[in-house]
Structure formats: C-alpha cells, structure tokens
Amino acid sequence: MRGGFGRARVFAIVFSLVLASCLSAKDAATEAFVPNSNDKGWLEQLDRVLTRDGLQGAYVAALVVRASDGQQLYAREPDRMMIPASNAKVLTALASLDAFGPTHRFETRILTSTPLDEAGMVENLIVVGGGDPALTNEDYWRMAAELREAGLTGVSGNIRVDDGLFDRVRWHPAVNGLSSRAYHAPVGALNANYGSFAVSVTPGARVGAQVSVTITPPVAYLPLVNEGTTLPRKRRRTLVVDRAKVPGAESVTVNGGVRLGDKRKAYYRSVLEPALYAGHVLKMQLAAVGIPVAGGVERGRVGSDAEPLHVFEGKPLLDVVRLFMKYSNNGIAEALVKNLGVQAGAGVGSWASGMPELRRRLLAHGVPAGSFSLVDGSGLSYENKVSPRALVAALRAGRSTFRFAPEFAAAFPIAARDGTLEERAEGARDRVRAKTGLLNNVTGLSGYATMMRTDGEPEEVVFSVIANATRHGDEAAMDALDRFAALVSDGPLGASSRVSRREEVSQPEE
Fold it and tell me: CATH code at 19?
C-alpha cells in the first residue's frame, strides 16, 4: 500500500537512498545467443516496455525464469538492490507459512477475575491478545456467542484488555509520513478490523445542511464530532476525516464539505489504541448476543488468580496470508513479523526479535544472503532493499515447498480478477498471479505467469520487476508493469534452453 510522502520529499529520499547505496552500477549487458527470431523480438519488447513511456528515466530491475528448473529467460540487472514496496510481503508470507504452517490458528484467551457465579455473572472479563492480526466484527460476534455457550450471562465490572504479547511500538520507526489512513494502522497483539474503521459521509438534502455520517463499527470508543456541511454542486469537495485521542476514546472529526448530490463515500481510518478498540468491539458484540457489560474497557494484565473461561481460535493462517497478500494489508504483515519473534523464543514480539527470524527462514529456503535487506515486513519503509533475484528465489521456494505450496500460490492476486490486481493487468487476465507494490515513485510486480511455448504447450514462469524513482506518475508506471506481465505471459518459450539478452556480470553474494 501507498505511503504518505509528498512528491518532492519522496524524490529526494528515493534518489539519495537508491543512487547512494544500490543503483549506481552501470548496465553490464551482453548480447546472448538467441536461437529463435520470435524470442529475440519478445526480449526486445520486454526491454522497450521497461525503458519507455511510464518507466522512461526510472531505475528498473527485472528477472524472468522458468519455474521448473530456474533457467533464466530474461534479466535486466536482476541483482540490483531496489526499494520493493509491498513486494516485500512475498518474503514475509514465505517466512510465516514456513514458521507456523497453513493450518495454524492464533488464539485469543478469555479469563475472568472471579469464577462464574450461579447466574453466569463475572466481575471483570479479561481478554488476552494472542497476536491474531485478522479478527473482524464477525469474529468478535462469534467470540461473544461462544462465551454465551460457555455460560457467561453478564459482566458486572469491566472488560480488561491485555496485549502484552507484543511490545508497545505501534509503528515501525523507519516509516515516515504516518497518517490516519487505514494502511498506517498500528500493530498490536490484540486487534479488531485490522486496526481500522469506516466513516461513511452523505451530503444533506440542501446546501448548507449538515452531512450525514455513519461510523462502522458503531462503538462508543469512536464518538463523532460532525462539522461537515453540504456545498453547492459546483464547489470543490473539501471534506477532511480524522481521529484524535481523547480521554477514554478516540474522537472522529468530520470537517469541510461535500457537494449536493454527491454519492455516499466511505473513508477508512486507523485507530491509535488497537487493544482498547478491540475491547469495545467485543463489548458491542456481547450486547448483541444478550450479555451486558456494566462497566467500560480498560487496559490491564492477567493476574495470577484469573480464571480461564474460553480460548477463541481465529482463522487458519492460510486465510490470514490470503487476506494479507490479496489486499496488501500492512498491519497483518507487521503482526506476523512480531509473531515470528515470539515463535523464535522472544518473550515479547517486536521487530527486533522478528526480523532476524524472518531473515533466517528466508536463507534456509535458498534466498541469497546478499540479495535482500529488510527492516519491516510490509514494505512501507524506503529503507527496505530487495533484488528481483531474491523475490524470484522466494517465489520458487514457496511454490515448491510441499507443506504450504498450494496456499502460498493461492494467496496472490489474479490478474484482472481479484485483490490489488482486480482492475489491473487486463492483458494478462487469468494468466498471471502476482503481488503488487506501490509507494510514491516506487512500484513492483512479482509472481507467476503461464506462458505459451513455441510448441503450443503452456509453461509456468516466475518473474519479478521493480521500478524506483519513476518520473511519470504512479499510474503510468503500474501500467508499464502490467504490460510487462502481459508480455511475459504471451511470449514464446521454445523447447530448447534460453539465455537472456541481459546478464549481470556481478553475482549475488552466496
């Protein structure tokens, strides 16, 4: 997902990081033997799409290999270290599936400060986060229903939330330009709705009337301050939706205006305190199943005398990874990193404990040591550096690891069908599954394609293409990468071995 940088600042950051550390090498291309004139034309087409129009003047690195044996089919500086944006999620998905397996379910524990009395009442309900990054309103309703089945009828005191499994660093320090947008949601061990909520705004019936606002979910933790007005039809929309921390809550403010006759529009925003928000979502769903909570929601820790009541199992990891990859969810990525730290033996999940474990697992799967340097799991930071060779190695490893290969491949967006590719890559419809990546002036696409060989048989290939310091707008750059993917899936692949026209002289560090 996109970061929150201004264009001028991004150009400065991208050029200084990229030019200084990883993009200073000159092209070291050599003309290689091409046994088929059709292949030569295909290779030249790939070169053209990566050097013209939306990618003219950008730094571009790419690699295409045959899936079956890794035979290189096309390369353009495949070992160049690039800012990957959300293509980094490919690496996080591989390490997470390797660590936990596709059927793993993160658990949320429910305890009580006093045993259930004869009427099913307790004083305080204690909710202990287990690092599940994908709990939604529906999951909390199911949690409430299961608590009712366990005999709970009411809470005379408070809901106490404990998210001590992770540290309290909510946002990675290497991510700048933080905003209230949903893709900048905080990372915690107890979450709801990916740490975000929706604010739907509809204009009033006449000019000057207050706009209509609906917050989903409708929890008391998100009180509304509505100062939005309805503007004349020819006026420019000026609406601003934000949130701010206030005692015991986060107020949602709507300012500015929308035009008369405009359609309802939803604005997605992140919360500041994910555990308190999750506690209020649970309180709402407890009420929905007939379990009243007399008090509020507070932060606390589990006492030694707490009574276990229920363990709620979330979605299997295969579903979590699919959501994470299809829709490029940053919060899931970073929660998975912190879970990796816990799984590796750290008492508290953190980036400091999780990132080394992520790296260790990638190396064990054959991703070359000198081909990647990650600081986070989502790709939001411009400090991340990954080469196309690293991504292709991870893609091949994920596709060939029996324990989770089907789940790994199924998590990728399908061209012109779903996820972040739903409205992209029409020319590669149903023939490409790939992870997108987008930051300001940075874009990438890495995944799998079905290519038709010159003998008419299909062949699966693996590809990665990353563009940094793009100069003609993000839409034009993404369109160029979509055309590259379409060409990859269209290109002829003869029965004999192929050697790409471009081949780096330097090799990645082993």
Answer: 3.40.710.10
Q: Which residues contact 77 (CB under 8 A, 6 or more apart)?
A: 25, 27, 60, 61, 62, 502, 504
Assess contact for 494 and 453: CB atoms under 8 A. yes
The two three-digit tokens of residue 119, written as one number: 């009427």
First to last CA, the chain: 31
Q: How far, in Å, CA of 295 to CA of 310, rounded?
A: 21
Q: Are strands 257-259 and 229-231 parallel, antiparallel or unpaired?
A: parallel
Unique residue bearing structure tokens 């829709």 = 327
- Bridge-partner residues for 373, per DSSP? 385
342: in domain = no
Instruction: Answer yes or no: is 160 within a domain.
Output: no
Predicted pLDDT of residue 356: 98
Q: What is the pLDDT of residues 392-408, one digit of tens each?
A: 999 999 999 999 999 99
User: CB neighbours (10 Å) of residue 33?
Assistant: 8
Tell me if residue 75 falls in helix, strand or coil: strand
- Per the structure block, which two tokens stand in for 10? 């991004």
Residue 104 has what pLDDT?
Answer: 98
Domain that holds residue 45: 1-82+387-505
From residue 52, alpha-carbon distances to 434, 470, 479, 484 in Å are 22, 11, 12, 12
> 112 has which bridge partners?
125, 307
What's the CA gap between 358 and 92, in Å, rounded? 7
* pLDDT tens-place string over residues 11-41: 444 334 433 344 433 333 333 323 344 578 8
Q: What is the pLDDT of residue 246?
A: 95
**Considering the domain boundaries, does residue 421 fall inside one?**
yes
Q: State how far the Cα of 288 lies from the Cα of 167, in Å rounded to an integer.
A: 32
User: 282-325: per-residue pLDDT in tens?
Assistant: 999 999 999 999 999 999 988 888 999 999 999 999 999 999 99
Lowest mean pLDDT among 34-48, 106-120, 155-169, 203-217: 34-48
Q: Domain for residue 399, yes or no?
A: yes
* CA–CA separation, 216 and 203 (whole Å): 18
Report d(CA 61, CA 385) in Å as an integer: 12
Q: Which amino acid is at 470?
A: T
What total number of domains does the chain contain?
1
Q: What is the pTM of this model?
A: 0.88
Rounded to 5°, the CA angle 360-362-363 comes to 65
Q: Return the closest-CA partner of residue 360 out of 96, 113, 121.
A: 96
Q: How is residue 416 written in tokens?
A: 């012109």
